[in-house]
Amino acid sequence: MLFYSIYPLEVILAEEGEEKPEQWREVEVEGKKVLVTINSRGEQIITRLLSTDPADYLDPRWSPGNVII
């Protein structure tokens, strides 16, 4: 069976008693809106790019997993 969702698999499969899922925050960087999570060191890590311009998705600076400085 296939299951399509906009939520990460960790959030969907989380069981009761596990630690809370990551908190997401929407920020604007260089005119681009991105969804970020904050790790234990306080760094903002890109989770998702929120853009309607296809060229933005080809730019490696906006790839998920990159750290925003």
Characterize the structure shown.
This protein has 69 residues and is an alpha+beta fold. The protein has one domain. Helix content is 13%, strand content 32%. The chain has 2 helices and 4 strands. Strands 1-2-3-4 form a 4-stranded antiparallel sheet, with no helix packed on it. Strand 2 (32-38) and strand 3 (44-50) form a beta hairpin. The longest helix has 5 residues, at 54-58. The radius of gyration is 14 Å and the shape is globular. It starts with 8 loop residues before the first helix and ends with a strand.
Helix and strand composition category: alpha+beta
Shape: globular
Helix count from the secondary structure assignment: 2
pLDDT < 50 runs, ≥5 residues:
none
| Spatial sequence of strands, sheet with the most strands | 1-2-3-4
Overall average residue pLDDT: 85
* Percentage of residues in DSSP E strands: 25-35%
Element order: H for helix, E for strand: HEEEHE
**C-alpha termini separation:** 40 Å
How helical, in percent, are the residues?
Answer: 10-25%
> How many strands, what sense, and barrel or not for the largest sheet?
4 strands, antiparallel
Q: What count of domains describes the coordinates? A: 1
The radius of gyration is 14 Å
Number of strands: 4
Helix and strand layout, with pairings?
Elements: H1 9-12, E1 24-29, E2 32-38, E3 44-50, H2 54-58, E4 67-68
